[in-house]
Amino acid sequence: MRWITMLTLAAMLSITAAWAEVSTYEDVQPDHWAYTALDYLTEEGVLEGYPDGYFKGDRTLTRYEFAQAIARLLDTIESEGADEQVNIMAETLRAEFSDQLEQMNKSIEGINAAMGDLDGRVADLEGNVADHGTRVEALEEKVACMTPGPDWKGEFRYRWQYETRDTPPALVGAAADDTTDRFRQRIQFVLGYNKQINERTEIGFRFKTNTGNNPVSGNYDLGSNAGGTADIFLDRAYVKYSPGWFGYYLDEECACQEKLDLYAGIFPQINYDPHEAILDADVNLQGIGAVYHFNRDFQILTAISVMMEENTGELDDDAILSITEARYNNLFTCGFDVWAGCYCWLNESALPASYFADNRLQGFDFNNNGAADEGGDRFSSQFKTAKVGAQYTFDCVWNKPLAIFGEYLVNTDSDAEDRISAVNPFITPDIIFESSDDTGFVVGAQWGEKPTCVGDWYWFARYKEIGANAIVDGLGDADAGGANTNSFEANATWMWADNALFGITYFLNRMNNAFGFLVPASKADQQIIQIDWTFKF
Predict the structure, then answer these.
(1) What's the DSSP call for residue 283?
(2) CATH at 453
(3) What is the pTM of this model?
(4) Does the N-terminal peptide bond of residue 429 adopt cis geometry, omega within 30 degrees of 0?
């Protein structure tokens, strides 16, 4: 009657339930009086010890623990079979411990449900971990791209440029003679140095080929110096001082920055935006400047630049450009930027003729000095240009930011109408003054951001209309045309290797209007295709 023996032993033993299956126990020696029974019941699956290998037989047995042993014993009886007397005893034990067995079943069901819920949470956790792993990898790539460079930085750019320009007619209404095509290669080299010499002071200088005081030298011709190498100019030489007098603000990286920055020397264009209609990147500011940051989104800047010194000892003999601009990023909503500015000249007539190449019309005495000046007279002798602009950036359009921008500018001090009125009585037909000659605008869009890592690329397109009197021509874009020009520009740039960029640009330039008479050769319809290979170091 081995089942009666097993039941008797199970009833006599002080046992407990655990989770590790073992056949012997650390705290039960072979000479213990219960060793054989414990070993037998463990092998039959009725008893289990603790995970640490101990049986702990001195503990008081609870009814739940005894019910667990009985349940395992009954399972063994049902699976292996037993005589009628044993079955009667088993049913008696089942009835006796029915409450405990039912409670155990409910507990097991609860445990199974909890395990199912835990499995689901673990699956979600594994998904989150995988997602975070992907984000960490992307962040590591970005951080690698943002590794600070040395104090010395430079750029080498090799350009292939193809141009086609219509030969202008001698008079409006005449047919163009033919079209001139030419292919040119251009080289630009830039080498600069910036150093933070103390907590508040930065110095910098930069050399650049075929730039400097000449505002129309942006095309950096190869061998432009009478067949020799391109000229090299001191493009920057400045000191920047940021005192803590006016407090501090938090920048985009939540770092404290001084609110006031002061510049002196030949300093970078602190207000330069490539999509604005005035001030080409090749124009240097020489004098003093200041930027005040109310916060990281709102700033006001001002600069006084001596563009040409007469060396007569009188300040008002020099051609001086004063700039004031205010810019507010994320106005009202994230991604909406607005700006306004004013560019005012003092004694702009002291500037060389190259600054006004496209502000003139040949053959007419607009300044009433008795003769048409060399290169033609300007319609306006006064330039005070005001502008307003706005840009809205959509954060993610096909996985890239999309910015839409526009700007309007006007010469608020133009005397072109009076000058043209003085000429009209002496010619037939009249030269008609158009208000658009004093205004200009630019509209466009940019998809993506300037590349910083291998594989990055971006694209932009913009359209400009700049009247003959809207700006001093030398402050316009040398490639996209300055004053008196309508132009369309499209560019795509791709970083194909570390610090190596490939870009292609298309320009279509046309004269804004011909004023009813001669079309300057520089304003004949022109198309340009530029392919740039740029290497940064």
Answers:
(1) B
(2) 2.40.160
(3) 0.67
(4) yes
